[in-house]
Amino acid sequence: MAKFLAELLGCTLPSKGASPMFESKSHSRVGLKSSTKQKTSIFSALASEKSLSDCKKEQQWKPPMYSSITPVCFTSPLIEKPIGKESMPQTPPFSAMFDSSGYNRNLYQSAEDSCGGLYYHDNNLLSGSLEALIQHLVPNVDYYPDRTYIFTFLLSSRLFMHPYELMAKVCHLCIEHQRLSDPNSDKNQIRKIAPKILQLLTEWTETFPYDFRDERMMRNLKDLAHRIASGEEQTYRKNVQQMIQCLIRKLAALTQYEEVLAKISSTSTDRLTVLKTKPQSIQRDIITVCSDPYTLAQQLTHIELERLNYIGPEEFVQAFVQKDPLDNDKSCYSERKKTRNLEAYVEWFNRLSYLVATEICMPVKKKHRARMIEYFIDVARECFNIGNFNSLMAIISGMNMSPVSRLKKTWAKVKTAKFDILEHQMDPSSNFYNYRTALRGAAQRSLTAHSSREKIVIPFFSLLIKDIYFLNEGCANRLPNGHVNFEKFWELAKQVSEFMTWKQVECPFERDRKILQYLLTVPVFSEDALYLASYESEGPENHIEKDRWKSLRSSLLGRV
Q: How far apart are the first and last CA of the chain?
């Protein structure tokens, strides 16, 4: 895990000559020429109007697709309707949870600055003891926590305690304080509190279902749900069954997804190994599988959205979890780092970058390599138009890898005006200012969407993780008095909740199994094999490259 984070947090948009996730010395490209006319689209129009030098002269430049979009409030809730006869307090959906300051104002009305171990300022909850925050999570007859608080606390609490420990405390408070264990308790009171407890459990299981892979979590959930359903109300029993069945379906889908990932990983081979057994003349390339770059961009979007969908919001926190100084249980620390789906998504980014580089370095003829570069430029351009920034960045990273960027004779034949615009759009300078502007535009377009396609927002994922990492590192989890720094966790939850909205979008494009199979399973070159293919295509230019070429031929091909 430490190695994964080190690699991830070192990433920027690679200079020419860098591997996808790492910085390295750049090799400049030469022989760039202006673009010829293409099918009319946003980028072809921009390419014909702006050269790279024009772009550099402008301090702020953004494509017209996002130039006149007004943000509005997103209205589809995560939980469609409340459970039980009594309606729950209305809480905002993910995208409307947090205002520009990082949390919803007017959530906590209190005349006092400090109340029951919770500290408020201007009616906003800023900090509190862990016990008080847990108490604040549990509903009673007259109170139900706001959804922003539920999401924020369930997300951040795992920095201080296991989810199963929190669940045990919640169950204890619900049972003892609400007298669910007392057969002589007031049935009217139970009738009022039961749907609220069930609603809290439903929000937990729907938003953080992976917590319940822990048998201790599931055991506590079923125990509390059984107490609620054991009363006279048939509605509660039915809703408890629906909640648990929905949870089991989600966990089964996750298990199946992980099995597919493991199968793909176990069957992957190096492209060079395949080449040794099959003549290159009968090898397929991406263009023979999918000749239309627009279709390929759509299939990449399928993969991106599917993998995004399986990332739990808690993985963003668990990726950076550190030992709580007030926690003496050393044995539980490593168990919290459950980030497999997040890591799998980053691995997909790297695979796509290497696939792009492999497809470019594979062809023997210079004109075929140039055609492949132009093909991927069109794919990247369409990814931008769709709002698929992760695939866009992976393609740019692959094309900027040193084995590709050193092919000067190949690049001299490429019409690169559109690629220059894409690079400008994803330029890492000023903390990715251009990209962040485009991302905000895509997010606003999603809110006003008239079609499923316009709802798509797929962020450059490594940068999103980097932002969350520095937010986490920049502020302490606890204040000097031992209180939990809840103001920090409002900001953390705001960023993660935006991701939660994006990952729920269904891909509107038709699936093509043949293309998807190729993208996910076709062997790709290792870094050494890429260099060898590059040197075989365009010979070494200096003694260092010649020595490396000889070494690679000896080690990979067994030639001298």
A: 39
Burial of 379 (0-12, 13-18, 19+ CB in 10 A): buried
**Which residues, other chains included, contact 153 with Cβ-Cβ below 8 Å and sequence gap of 6+?**
133, 136, 137, 489
Tokens of residue 186, six digits: 């007031």
The residue to which tokens 């769709």 are assigned: 386
The token pair at 479 is 């204040």
Tokens of 369: 């390599």
Looking at residue 555, what DSSP letter applies? Answer: I
- Contact predicate 218/244, CB 8 Å: no
The one-letter code for the residue type at 253 is A
As a whole number of angstroms, the distance between CA 175 and CA 220 comes to 11
Helix (H) / strand (E) containing 115: strand 114-115
pLDDT tens digits, one per residue of 248-273 = 999 999 999 999 888 887 776 665 66
User: Residues 66, 72: contact at Cβ < 8 Å?
Assistant: no
pLDDT tens, 118-175?
A: 999 888 899 999 999 999 999 988 889 999 999 999 999 999 999 999 999 999 998 8
The CA distances from residue 301 to 323, 458, 516, 517, in Å, are 37, 8, 10, 14
How many alpha carbons fall within 13 Å on the CB side of residue 340? 10
